[in-house]
């Protein structure tokens, strides 16, 4: 499959979407956690990985204790001041059930107006301009994380050029490998997990993700010629040396890690097309997981 898909346009739109998020943010930032609050951030799939990234960034910025959970694994025994939920559709069963059960103030970040999640939440931030037609999440995930980074004082406009560079960069070598392992540190562990998910779900391709320094504790054994190890953010030079010694292709970038994720999205879609798959409709997936019970 070589024809254009919705996801191609959505990936390419991210510099524009990030500008819109930057313009939109001042009107809604008051709904997000106050500095010093103890916060839980929840999502499913891509939204969980963006939650992981935000939780690490918020703590590192000194804004307060922040934990991230998948929707089905929330720890009800811990006390939180606020719950932040990321959900593109606002209909995911685990998210609705969680909102119905918790008694703490909650804010939902979603792409859909008047969703079931909005009905259950204390507050809602709706970024419909970042919604997608493809089942594959790309610009929604970075828009949600971009909003949360803005809340921590980051200026999204400073990385627009990085996003454009990621869109125009050469990915031909990466789509020829037989396996990719993504690595991250701190907040970029969430990005590594998201990149691996994009690659698996779009193209049924073997991709994994690990904290960078844990890669040497076992997973390094799969590194070899014809495979790739992809790092988000800075990793130690001795780890890079060990990876290259295996003959694997090592991918890294000086781009902002969220912009570097765009490059990974492009690789995932390109591999899917090379395999004759439609990345807009990954096998066995739906826009939202809605369970019977």
Describe this structure in words.
By secondary structure, the chain is α/β, with parallel strands linked by helices. Helix content is 38%, strand content 14%. Helix 3 links the parallel strand 1 and strand 2. Helix 3 runs parallel beside helix 6 (139-151) and helix 8 (188-203) packs parallel to helix 10 (257-274). It is globular. 49% of the residues are buried. The model has no long low-confidence stretch (mean pLDDT 95).
Salient structural properties:
single chain, 9 strands, Rossmann fold, four-stranded parallel beta sheet, alpha/beta, 293 residues, five-stranded parallel beta sheet, 38% helix
Distance between the termini: 37 Å
CATH 4th-level superfamily of the largest domain: Glucose-6-phosphate isomerase like protein, domain 1
Number of helices: 10
Our Rg estimate from Cα atoms comes to 18 Å
Helix fraction by DSSP (H/I, runs of at least 4): 25-40%
Low-pLDDT ranges = none
CATH topology of the largest domain: Rossmann fold
The profile of the biggest β sheet is: 5 strands, parallel
Number of domains: 2
Quick one: how many beta strands?
Answer: 9
The neighbouring-strand order within the major sheet is: 2-1-3-4-5
Q: What is the element string, with H for helices and E for strands?
A: HHEHEEHEHEHHEHEEHEH
Sheet/helix structural class: alpha/beta
Reported CATH architecture of the largest domain: 3-Layer(aba) Sandwich
User: What overall form do the CA principal axes indicate?
Assistant: globular
How much of the sequence lies in strands comes to 5-15%
CATH top level of the largest domain is: Alpha Beta
Mean pLDDT: 95
């Amino acid at each position: 499959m070589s024809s254009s898909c919705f996801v191609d346009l959505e990936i390419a739109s991210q510099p524009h979407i990030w500008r819109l998020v930057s313009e939109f943010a001042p009107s809604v930032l008051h709904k997000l956690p106050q500095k010093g609050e103890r916060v839980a951030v929840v999502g499913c799939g891509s939204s969980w990985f963006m939650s992981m990234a935000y939780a690490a960034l918020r703590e590192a910025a000194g804004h307060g204790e922040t934990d991230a959970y998948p929707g089905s694994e929330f720890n009800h025994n811990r006390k939180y001041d606020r719950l932040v939920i990321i959900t593109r559709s606002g209909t995911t069963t685990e998210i609705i059930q969680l909102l119905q059960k918790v008694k703490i103030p909650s804010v939902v970040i979603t792409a859909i107006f008047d969703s079931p999640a909005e009905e259950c939440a204390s507050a809602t931030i709706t970024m419909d301009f970042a919604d997608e037609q493809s089942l594959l999440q790309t610009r929604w995930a970075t828009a949600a994380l971009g909003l949360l980074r803005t809340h921590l004082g980051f200026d999204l406009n400073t990385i627009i050029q990085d996003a454009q560079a990621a869109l125009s960069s050469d990915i031909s070598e990466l789509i020829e490998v037989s396996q990719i392992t993504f690595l991250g540190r701190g907040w970029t562990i969430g990005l590594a997990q998201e990149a691996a998910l994009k690659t698996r779900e779009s193209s049924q391709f073997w991709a994994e993700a690990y904290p960078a320094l844990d890669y040497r504790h076992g997973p390094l054994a799969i590194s070899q010629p014809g495979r790739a190890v992809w790092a988000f953010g800075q990793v130690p030079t001795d780890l890079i040396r060990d990876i290259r010694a295996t003959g694997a292709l090592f991918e890294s970038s000086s781009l902002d890690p969220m912009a570097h994720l765009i490059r990974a999205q492009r690789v995932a879609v390109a591999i899917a097309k090379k395999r004759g798959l439609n990345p807009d409709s990954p096998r066995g997936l739906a826009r939202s997981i809605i369970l019977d019970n």
